[in-house]
Inverse folding.
């Protein structure tokens, strides 16, 4: 008798139910996609035709292909923020390399070139993440900025030429009138995934994503698996770059930037669990087309395209929340804890309702209420040995940069104007370092900084419009808005259990949409004369903002080093469970941390508006990696628990001095992004080596 004949109805039903539960995310995504197709068919002028299906299939193919690569990375327990930059790089490489005079182009050759570029970037990421065991977030974020600089070096503005043969092949029909080629390309990639999933590597991939330590214990080569994951993912990004090149027929150095948010949203909507070990690319493909259908529905309903990032960010948050719901989820735990606190309050047994009694142990041989003789405090050098060890290198390197500037450009060391300019330009990152640095000290990351800066500056400039009197209400409005943004980030992370990366990335997209809607794509208004005076005037040899920054630095040092809030921040960064057991209110502290980060970003938006005289879209884009770079270069540990604001300030001045040195040379602007990425990678690698010694 064969094994199939021996199956009972119960075992067959149990196996089916288990398969349905295992693929629940993909099945739900498929059902949602079917509903959206029905809605599109219903609100359209006529029934969907083959042309409509072909158009929709090509519209979501780029995002779907890139999201497949992102899914494989997330299944292994990682993140990849460089995906959009890889797509842009492949796009400009193809458009700058194809010969417009050639009668035809080899589709296979250029497809291989695009995939090869992506795999090379994936190998770069994989080396640092798998071999050197560095954090995926900081490595891929650094790679993103390096690639953006390389892309601008290849082509600094839209243009170039992509052979029409590429578009004819990838956007045409596999079977005329029946089967669009984009669906065939996605199908081939999914078939390759199914084959890969059935191999030992596929099993190892899910094992590493579920528990890397257990995977290593059973003999899985975790390093090799993680390295291969990023190489494969890079190939998917490269293919997405080829596809978007076929769609556009030319190049745009920024074409891949908007895809990052939709990529993560597609992965989460498709049912892949953030953290790894569960999900797959099939659901991700459905998720990518769901997002595209939502945007198309908004367009059919004559809703502004500015709402697209708001929709994507909202869908990402809701999908991440829905995917994490379970009995053991953070939200479920918080609800049970709230119910227990309510019951304790009704019973009058909350700690705040009980009379305070000194329960400390009495020291032997001392009268009650008295302490024994206090031992002398250790020397300053011993008390601050770790801080000095990790913070001093930034100041040493700063001295080296200033000396090089003096030798190369002259008029630096003894020039008051140089030092004033250095301090003014450092003021923006010095403020951001407090917010982003505090977030990093807790083990998180705030990716909503760029558009928190942008929307704060845009709203302030629009309300002030050149009036000093308007600052009295415009400043509080901008800061209260920042508090609301930070509260939303902190609440989603602390109480809903959403990953800091996902929550702040979604918030950044939502803020971008609101900024576009508020300004209608063209920010209006100007800075007030008083604000501009603070940022650009001179009091002798010093700009007024420098004097304010001295006060800010003192307050920042006291906040993180001398207050209960600062001690709670370090406690959370050193261990979440230990922090809870020691009595720290983790949720409240995290909310305050992200509110502080948002307020710091808003202050920078206000300062930039005063410095330049007006606000602009994307004014905060150049500050994301530098805000992380100065914290890491200043000696903070990217995983949290270690760092000092004075070290971060040293990182701020070091990178600003380096930026001023580069500005005085003939090197192109794109080198700044490359340099920032390399500096962050080098700093993280150096600090990792020191920690292991």
């Amino acid at each position: 008798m064969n094994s199939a004949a021996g199956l009972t109805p119960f075992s067959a039903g149990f196996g089916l139910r288990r398969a349905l539960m295992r693929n629940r995310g993909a099945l739900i995504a498929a059902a949602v996609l079917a509903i959206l197709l029905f809605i599109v068919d219903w609100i359209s002028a006529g029934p969907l035709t083959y042309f409509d299906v072909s158009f929709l299939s090509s519209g979501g193919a780029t995002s779907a292909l890139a999201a497949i690569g992102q899914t494989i990375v997330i299944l292994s327990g990682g993140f990849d923020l460089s995906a959009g930059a890889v797509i842009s790089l492949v796009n400009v490489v193809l458009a700058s390399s194809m010969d417009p005079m050639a009668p035809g182009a080899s589709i296979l050759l250029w497809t291989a070139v695009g995939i090869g570029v992506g795999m090379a970037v994936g190998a770069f990421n994989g080396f640092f993440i798998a071999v050197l065991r560095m954090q995926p977030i900081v490595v891929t974020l650094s790679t993103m900025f390096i690639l953006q600089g390389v892309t601008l070096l290849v082509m600094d503005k839209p243009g170039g030429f992509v052979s029409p043969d590429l578009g004819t092949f990838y956007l045409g029909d596999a079977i005329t009138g029946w089967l669009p080629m984009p669906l065939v390309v996605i199908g081939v990639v999914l078939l390759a995934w199914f084959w890969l999933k059935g191999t030992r590597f596929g099993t190892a991939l899910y094992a590493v994503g579920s528990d890397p330590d257990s995977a290593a214990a059973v003999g899985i080569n975790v390093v090799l698996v993680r390295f291969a994951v990023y190489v494969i993912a890079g190939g998917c990004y490269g293919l997405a770059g080829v596809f978007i090149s076929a769609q556009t027929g030319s190049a745009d150095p920024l074409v891949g930037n908007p895809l990052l948010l939709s990529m993560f949203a597609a992965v989460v909507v498709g049912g892949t669990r953030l953290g790894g070990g569960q999900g797959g690319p099939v659901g991700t493909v459905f998720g990518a087309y769901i997002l595209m259908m939502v945007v198309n529905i908004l367009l059919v309903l004559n809703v502004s395209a500015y709402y697209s990032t708001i929709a994507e960010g909202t869908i990402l948050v809701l999908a991440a929340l829905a995917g994490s719901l379970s009995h053991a989820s953070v939200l479920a735990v918080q609800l049970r804890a709230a119910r227990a606190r309510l019951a304790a309050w009704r019973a009058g047994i909350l700690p705040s309702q009980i009379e305070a009694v000194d329960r400390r142990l009495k020291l032997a041989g001392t009268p009650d209420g008295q302490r024994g003789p206090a031992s002398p405090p250790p020397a300053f050098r011993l008390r601050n040995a770790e801080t000095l060890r990790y913070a001093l290198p930034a100041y040493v390197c700063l001295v080296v940069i200033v000396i090089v500037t003096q030798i190369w450009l002259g008029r630096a060391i003894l020039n008051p104007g140089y030092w004033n300019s250095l301090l003014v330009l450092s003021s923006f990152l010095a403020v951001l370092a407090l917010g982003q640095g505090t977030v990093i000290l807790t083990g998180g990351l705030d990716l909503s900084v760029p558009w928190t800066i942008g929307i704060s500056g845009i709203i302030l400039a629009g309300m002030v419009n050149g009036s000093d009197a308007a600052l009295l209400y415009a400043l509080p409005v901008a800061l209260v808005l920042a508090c609301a943004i930070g509260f939303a980030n902190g609440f989603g992370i602390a109480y809903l259990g959403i990953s800091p990366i996902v929550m702040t990335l979604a918030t950044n997209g939502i803020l971008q949409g609101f900024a576009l809607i508020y300004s209608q794509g063209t920010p209006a208004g100007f800075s007030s004369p008083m604000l501009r005076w603070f940022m650009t005037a001179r009091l002798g040899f010093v700009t007024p903002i420098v004097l304010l920054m001295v006060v800010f630095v003192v307050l920042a040092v006291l906040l993180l080093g001398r207050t209960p809030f600062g001690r709670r921040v370090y406690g959370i960064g050193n261990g979440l469970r230990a922090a809870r057991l020691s009595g720290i209110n983790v949720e409240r502290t995290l909310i305050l941390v992200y509110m502080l980060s948002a307020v710091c970003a808003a202050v920078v938006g206000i300062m930039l508006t005063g410095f330049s005289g007006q606000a602009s879209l994307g004014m905060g884009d150049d500050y994301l990696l530098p805000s992380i770079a100065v914290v890491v270069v200043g000696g903070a540990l990217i995983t949290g628990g270690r760092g000092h604001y004075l070290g971060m300030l040293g990182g701020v001045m070091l990178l600003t001095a380096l930026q001023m040195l580069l500005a005085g040379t003939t090197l192109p602007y794109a080198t700044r992004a490359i340099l920032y990425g390399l500096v962050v990678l080098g700093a993280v690698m150096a600090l990792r080596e020191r920690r292991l010694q």
In short: The chain has 30 helices and two strands. Strands lie at 173-175, 179-180. The chain has a mean pLDDT of 83. The longest helix spans residues 222-248.
